[in-house]
Amino acid sequence: MSVRRMAALSVVMAAALGGCGVSTSGAERATAAGGGPGAAGSTYPRSSTTTGSSTTAPGTSNPDVANDPVLKKMQADLESLTQTLDDYWAGKVDGYQPPQAVETYLADGSSTVTCGGRPVTGPNAAFCGSDNTVLVAIDWFYEQNQKIGDTFTYFVLAHEWGHSAQANLGVPDNPNIELQADCFAGAFLQDEIDAGQLTEEPGDEQELNQSIALASNDFGTKEKHGTLAQRATAVEYGRTNRGQACVSQYGPG
Asked: Taking each helix axis from N to C terminus, what angle separates 138-147 and 69-90, rounded to the nearest 10 degrees?
């Protein structure tokens, strides 16, 4: 795959990141996730080739992907990273079954997808365990790539494939489920950096911190992702100790 970008993580978050929280809970064990590029309502098979990609930037009147560098980069990153995540977890979990599709919709509800037969709306990106799919409000995802940068793509998708790994491992729903997915994300990122699949560039650390802050909530209730400090600690723990340690550190107990 082509070499992509990712950040080194600092456990100490910048104070300026406060107040960035956005709810990312969803239906049927749908938890913060990444998604695929293209028109709302599109379905992308799990392969390195996406189909049905839109040439209009979500939420804009831009008619040409080539004239929108943010959308063009987002499409390229999503295509390469989803395949990398599939391959990574296939090498870590025996019999790993990756998400079957990446499905997109619009946050305002004008275009929807379902999880377990129920419609999913709102600014969200989610893994639907009952359908084994990844769902994303593509206009919201595009907006965050504009505001934060491309590191948003890497963290969100790595977190979501962490939930896919949990589903394959049979991890039950529990208060640590989101932090463990963060831990798995950190393990993936560091493993791929060490393997030369991802490279670090200036500015990526701040983008990663902002990405973590976006989905941070009060910890302790179902579908909550943990505080900013808890999430940062979980990602760093995964990067330092790797995936197997995440199983025990953030297990159901």
From this structure: 110
